[in-house]
């Protein structure tokens, strides 16, 4: 492992989620054990099997964008607006004077997903060429008539690299700029990459994180077709129950979590308030999370989640017993939670005291590309405030998930180290270790 | 000690060939891969042509391709190119390689959009009184009409997920989608992962196709595409005065990046060293490059710094060279700024003059062409270069390939949205 003298610290946090649109509200809800999952208000879901989610409401992107730049909100889908807003919150929270930053050393690393198109803006085009035979667009008519009815900048509103692009323009971030599109683990991978770039001295200051909204008709239909969502429509607040025996699928949320990540000396020079230091990162792949993806001929090996965790702990130079708590992926899916528990057991099973596990999705659902970093933010606030919030809806332990879930009441912080893990249902895994700054 | 990264395998699926040799020979001969769009009826589109991969059957490239049944062209091209690349590197089915230290980083595009069902549903559920789509009707229809597996394969992490599972590569697994810069960025960051010690081997590159109705529509509405319908093979004319936009291409390019000592130990065939990587953002506009090329300049400079080479060492530049008015002018400006008077002595060409623009896959394919050119000592031309543009006055290797011994090559990729990537590959002795 290449040693580096350049250290990375977190000096700003911006979160937007169903439980709050600023850091104080977010922590208050976590402290109070208040879920943000409700019946969906964004659109009429009466024909869908799933009608609950964690929405960010009310959300007005104009609030986060300077007047002169508000026109560009017209070419941003909600996902992009949420990313831009969370980034602004993180920057404000960092207290940085942007005019003192070197733009060439200021990067953006974002997690992003597939962005679904809005329906109404395409209706004129559809009516001109798609209303004759069901399931069939007349391509000749499309080319000659519908084409002109598509808003000229339509495509720009949906490109996954646009959150990072707009953020770079708004804040004059001319350093490295990447958009990692690895589904639920995207935000954490983006953070890991920013951590590496800081260490190798190609930037000093990063906006790193992710944001996503899939609470719109097209995304919801697609998610329903994938058949992994909880259908507990009658009890929205009870629907997301990571590691609980009666979990029945995950719950969509929307929003994002964005960090200002900064080289330590850079942060000290400007007298920044430091939340935590990133001291280890690891990633790995393991298709066994999903029997439909796994290769039946591949020889068995160690869990990819466990390998990512070991790499992160190795870099952090700490042992598993030193971790205060694991901030879990905790999807609330029957198979995924059990697979995660096995991966955690492989690393922590030999510890004398079981390591406490916290699952933040139980509050605001699965934010996709924005999830892992928003969840990590909860643990950073936990380190600040001295206790880990309880995981909601953990009523009945599941023998398939033998974990010490923090459930009945908040748990006092014992050590300065938190491990955040995340993975996708294809097998991409990541782990980050942070240390409270003291 | 610094861990060095070398390239020990290469593979491509392109409109000009489905092997590296075939692609390179077509480039030397100045063949155009551009013709009328056959994937769908584009007869009434403003742009009716593209550079398409011909006669592609995944089963010709990959044994047991069933897992890609519902996948889009991006993932299928990626699978074929990956198999070729692993085979080329002697790593296909090699059980001695430590799978845990073998990762993937691919700039992969999105899967097939269900264009017909989607627009049909929007039309059928339009409420003329409210001038809005009835979402309940749309949702009910979508649940019935959309194909679950095909919808799943559109998700952006599926391309690298399938590659990891099928080829049993268990190291870091990343995908990025930074438009036209994606595969170059993937290669650059993958190399950094090896340097840092996160992996010893990485399969890296890109795969994409936007030659579908909505892809062409999107770019046509942005007026980014050439509309030279009367002469498609003349449409991609980077640096020529009469250029009028880029031409969509499709395909995949992959390389094996390997830690030098690891490669030596297993007696791998080393094509080149990946010596330098630059990554910056314009932070200027959503579509156009910064007029003075500030992001591109900083990017090339960063790659040079990373390689430790003086600017004068670069013997060939494979330009981003999209054939749009702005890109080619700004890229020329940036090269002049970085290389000074020396810029006029460096042969530059744009593979896109023949291949079109492979978007997320472009950079990887162009790096591969650059490496083969360096090894063979013959630089591919820029075709359709007929009328000089006073703003573009460098040596673009017009129309005819050129023999020249070069030891270090630079490949540029500048993405829509302002991401700039430069890669430097060096001869390895």
Average pLDDT over all residues of chain B: 97
Number of strands of chain B: 16
Any idea of the CATH topology of the largest domain in chain B? Peroxisomal Thiolase, Chain A, domain 1
The helix/strand class of chain B is alpha/beta
Largest sheet of chain B: 10 strands, mixed
Mean pLDDT of chain A: 97
Distance between the termini of chain A: 26 Å
Oligomer: heterodimer
Q: Find the biggest chain interface.
A: A-B, 106 and 99 residues
Read across the widest sheet of chain A, the strand sequence of neighbours is 5-4-6-7-1-8-15-14-9-10-12
Helix-strand sequence of chain B:
EHEEHEHEEHHHEHEHEHEHEHEHHEEEE
Overall domain count of chain B:
2
Radius of gyration of chain A: 21 Å
Q: pLDDT under 50 segments of chain B (min length 5)?
A: none
Number of helical elements of chain A: 13
Residue share in helices of chain A? 25-40%
CATH top level of the largest domain in chain B?
A: Alpha Beta
Instruction: Return Rg of chain B in Å.
Output: 21 Å
Strand adjacency order, main sheet of chain B: 7-4-8-9-1-10-16-15-11-12
CATH superfamily annotation of the largest domain in chain B? Thiolase/Chalcone synthase
The structure class of chain A reads alpha/beta
